[in-house]
Structure formats: C-alpha cells, structure tokens
Amino acid sequence: MTVDRDHVLRTAAALLTRKATATMDEVARASGIGRATLHRHFAGRDALVKALEELGIREFEAALAAARTDEGPAGDAVRRLIAEVEPAAGLLAFLVTENQLFEGEVNEGWDRLDARVSALFRRGQERGEFRIDLPPAWLTEAFYGLIGSCAWAVQDGRVAPKDFQYMIAELLLGGARRSVEQ
C-alpha cells in the first residue's frame, strides 16, 4: 500500500489541532495506517511535528502570495490575508504553541513569514493607515495570536466559523487603525 504523505500530514494536523497531546498511535489510526508505517515516514513525534512545521510554512507562504499583500490599501491586504490563512488556521494555531519548534535553531521559514507580515503592517503605518505607536513586530504577533485564538474558538464551538474573518479583522484592524487625533 502506498502512503500519501500529504494525507498523513493533513490528518495529523487536523488531529493535533483538536488534541495537541495525541499519540503517534492515534495519528496512525486517524490516517488509516499502522503505527509501523507511520514510523517509516516519521521517526517519532519530533519528526512529525517538524514535517508539520514545513507544511505550515508552505501553507502560510501560499496564503501570503494569494492575498497579494503588496497591493492596495494595507487594511484590505490584511483582510485578504486573514481569508487566505483561514483554511490553515488550525495548523498554525497548533504550531504556534508547539514548544519544540522554538528550542534551538528556529526554522528560517518563520523569519521569512514574519518579515513579510511585518512589512505589510509597516506599509500601513507609512501610508497613515495604521497607528505608529505599535511596532510592526507586535502587530505581527497579534495577528498570529488572533488567528490561533479564533481557530480554537471555532473548533470548540464557542464562535461561528462564518465569523472567523470578521472577528479577527475587526479586532486587529480596529486596534491597529490610526485615529484622526494621532
């Protein structure tokens, strides 16, 4: 039987998003394969999480490209980015809280992503759309935090999935928006 690695990763991402403590046995069962087969592809949980990290980085890079963050007003670009990130929000929420990713050397993919998102917020500041008293790095972290928090709230049934984009955009942009008095 040929194992579809992408299917296994996406299944693992969906499971770990719901249950961060899921075992490799649970991941194998959810993927419809045996534990031994899973271990042939991923030597252990660390290897699986690293592969999920690569998937998350690819998904977020694709979302950034699709959102065309260099086009139009920065606020509109942020809204497009939220919409494009939504399908991967659960995976990103899991990755943001997975401590092993931040031990030792950090994947340069995160640095690329941070730089692109920060550049979007900086552009909004330079064009007078966003407040200048909040650093772009902080707005970037706030963006990630809201994506993760909203993904968990939707998953737990505390908020409606249809409100995902609205809630994040309104809270983030409402707080980032530069007022006339500033």
Structural class: mainly alpha
Count the strands? 0
Q: Percent of residues in helical segments?
A: 55-70%
- In round numbers, the mean pLDDT is 90
The helix/strand order is: HHHHHHHHH
C-alpha-based Rg, rounded: 18 Å
β-strand amount: under 5%
The major beta sheet can be summarized as:
none
Shape descriptor: elongated
Residue stretches low in confidence (pLDDT < 50, at least 5 long) are: none
Q: Please count the helical segments.
A: 9
- Whole-Å distance between the termini? 63 Å
Write the layout of secondary structure elements.
Layout lengths: L4 H14 L5 H8 L3 H7 L3 H23 L6 H12 L3 H9 L10 H19 L9 H20 L8 H13 L6
What do you see in this structure?
This protein has 182 residues and is mainly alpha-helical. Helix content is 69%, strand content 0%. The protein is built from nine helices and no strands. The protein is elongated, with a radius of gyration of 18 Å.
Short description:
This protein is an all-alpha fold and 182 residues long. The chain has helices at 5-18, 24-31, 35-41, 45-67, 74-85, 89-97, 108-126, 136-155, 164-176.
